[in-house]
């Protein structure tokens, strides 16, 4: 191993290569998260082992019923590609401590313990590559199965053993057996409360030595390359990379019986609205599926994801690639914008006879429908753009989200509507 860098030297070194390493990921914008493991057998949340207080030996028996079918990862990857996603992240081991690959470091794995177990991670990596998708591996630091995991908090020797256990697994995953891995997605650094406790500085330097271009998330108690808002969408400050991870059914990452999951699941428009929020804040969306025990994709996820893919195939210019952080959020109540330089893309999802945009100070040159390029009439007066005449033919039949390109003379200046003083004869309405 190369000489160990101090925290500041390490952070400086990774910052120097960050823009280049992250360029593909920033352009990619949209990825698929896959939560799969023994919890899938229970089908009621990936935390079941802890929540329901399963004795370890009893939980281990679930492996008998964990039956991934060969080729299931291809189904995931084909669906991700069809959905317009550009990368995938698989739970190579979740908190239950069960490894989805042929591991020597961790005998508690799919090949050793399952009736017809095969190397799911290996097949997953190949499937991603076959579809041209970036490859990400989720890796839980917390482990409910390994006896040293919780002891780490107070027992130095257990901590040293557990750190070595983790590193052994990381060497298997990242040491060349599976070729280039694009993302390492750590999760839940409990019970240690500092990066020192995990030896994250050493661990992540080892990771980067094995995979020099890899992106690492922020859950090993070091900031690393990108932050991971979970079940909410919040942009990071200062242009830092961020990726919102969202469940498909708003309740569980791991498989839930379809009948329970379906009523809560996002439809195509719901997914596009999330994607819009992410795009306007310069981030990424990692949308989850929880496959069934044999690895099949739950029915409720398929049609919406395919519709999103169809939509992205023609509206992708409003989503992929470099976008600016958009400050025109309050110009309309019937849609929202993404921005690239002089252009705004208006995503419209609420329909009415009139479309009026308030607050733009920059001259608008043209409005065109995407993707047809059909010019749309408009008038612009002080602080108001009235779009139209217009009709239902502009509605998008796939997801009911239409896109219009607004080309301004310069990057548009937008002022949040502050009409009250004028409307109320110059009086300060709030001060009344
Ligand atoms: C969490 C949960 C977990 C899920 C993950 C996804 O922290 O513990 O079950 O895998 O977040 O972001």
Largest sheet: 8 strands, parallel
**Beta-strand content bin:** 15-25%
Bound molecules: alpha-D-glucopyranose
- Helix/strand class: alpha/beta
The order of strands across the largest sheet is: 5-4-3-2-1-8-7-6
Form type? globular
What is the share of helical residues? 25-40%
Number of strands: 16
Low-confidence stretches: 423-432
The CA-CA distance between the termini, in Å, is: 69 Å
Mean pLDDT: 92
Question: How many DSSP helices?
Answer: 15
**Radius of gyration from the CA trace?**
24 Å
Walk me through this protein's architecture.
The protein has 432 residues and is α/β, with parallel strands linked by helices. Helices cover 32% and strands 19% of the residues. It is built from 15 helices and 16 strands. The strands form three sheets. The chain has an eight-stranded parallel sheet. It has a five-stranded antiparallel sheet with strand order 9-10-16-12-13. It is globular and about 70 Å long. Alpha-D-glucopyranose binds at residues 35, 46-47, 187-188, 230, 245, 253.
Descriptors:
432 residues, alpha/beta, eight-stranded parallel beta sheet, five-stranded antiparallel beta sheet, 16 strands, globular, binds alpha-D-glucopyranose
Brief rundown of the structure:
By secondary structure, the chain is α/β, with parallel strands linked by helices.
Topology (SSEs and partners):
Layout: H1 7-28, E1 30-34, H2 39-42, H3 48-51, H4 56-60, H5 72-82, E2 87-93, H6 110-113, H7 120-130, E3 134-140, H8 147-151, H9 156-174, E4 183-187, H10 195-198, H11 200-210, E5 215-216, E6 226-227, E7 241-246, H12 258-261, H13 268-280, E8 284-289, H14 299-315, E9 335-340, E10 343-348, E11 355-358, E12 364-370, E13 375-376, E14 378-381, E15 384-387, E16 402-408, H15 420-423
Parallel strand pairs: 1-2, 1-8, 2-3, 3-4, 4-5, 6-7, 7-8
Antiparallel strand pairs: 9-10, 10-16, 11-15, 12-13, 12-16, 14-15
Helix pairs in contact: 5-7, 5-14, 9-11, 13-14
The structure holds alpha-D-glucopyranose (GLC).
């Amino acid at each position: 191993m190369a000489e160990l860098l101090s925290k500041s030297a390490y952070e400086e070194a990774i910052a120097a290569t960050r823009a280049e390493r992250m360029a593909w990921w920033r352009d990619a914008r949209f990825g698929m998260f896959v939560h799969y493991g023994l919890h899938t057998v229970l089908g009621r949340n990936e935390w079941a082992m802890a929540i329901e207080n399963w004795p370890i030996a009893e939980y281990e028996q679930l492996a008998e019923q964990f039956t991934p079918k060969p080729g299931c990862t291809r189904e995931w990857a084909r669906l991700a590609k069809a959905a317009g996603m550009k990368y995938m992240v698989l739970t190579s081991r979740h908190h239950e401590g069960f490894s989805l690959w042929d591991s020597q470091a961790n005998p508690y794995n799919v090949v050793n313990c399952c009736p017809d177990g095969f190397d799911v991670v290996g097949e997953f990596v190949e499937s991603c590559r076959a579809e041209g998708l970036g490859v990400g591996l989720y890796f839980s630091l917390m482990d409910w199965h390994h006896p040293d995991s919780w002891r780490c908090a107070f027992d130095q020797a257990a901590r040293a053993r557990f750190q070595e256990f983790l590193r052994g697994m990381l060497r298997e995953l990242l040491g060349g057996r599976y070729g280039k891995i694009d993302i390492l997605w750590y999760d839940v650094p409990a019970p240690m409360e500092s990066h020192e406790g995990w030896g994250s500085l050493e661990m992540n330097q080892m990771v980067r030595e094995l995979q020099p271009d890899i992106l690492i998330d922020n859950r090993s108690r070091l900031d690393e390359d990108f932050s991971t808002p979970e079940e909410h969408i919040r942009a990071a400050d200062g242009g830092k990379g961020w990726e919102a991870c969202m469940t498909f059914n708003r309740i569980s990452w791991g498989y839930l019986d379809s009948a329970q999951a379906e009523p809560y699941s996002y439809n195509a428009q719901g997914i596009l609205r999330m994607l819009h929020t992410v795009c306007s804040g310069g981030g990424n969306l990692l949308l989850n599926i929880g496959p069934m025990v044999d690895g099949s994709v739950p029915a409720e996820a398929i049609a919406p994801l395919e519709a999103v893919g169809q939509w992205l195939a023609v509206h992708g210019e409003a989503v992929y690639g470099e976008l600016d952080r958009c400050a025109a959020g309050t110009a309309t109540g019937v849609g929202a914008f993404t921005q690239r330089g002089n252009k705004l893309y208006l995503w419209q999802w609420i329909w009415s006879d009139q479309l009026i945009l308030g607050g733009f100070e920059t001259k608008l040159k043209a409005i065109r429908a995407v993707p047809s390029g059909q010019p749309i009439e408009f008038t612009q007066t002080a602080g108001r753009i009235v779009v139209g005449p217009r009709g239902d033919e502009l509605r998008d039949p796939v997801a009911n989200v239409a896109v219009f390109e607004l080309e301004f003379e310069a990057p548009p200046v937008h002022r949040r509507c502050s009409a009250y003083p004028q409307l109320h004869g110059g009086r300060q309405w709030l001060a009344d």
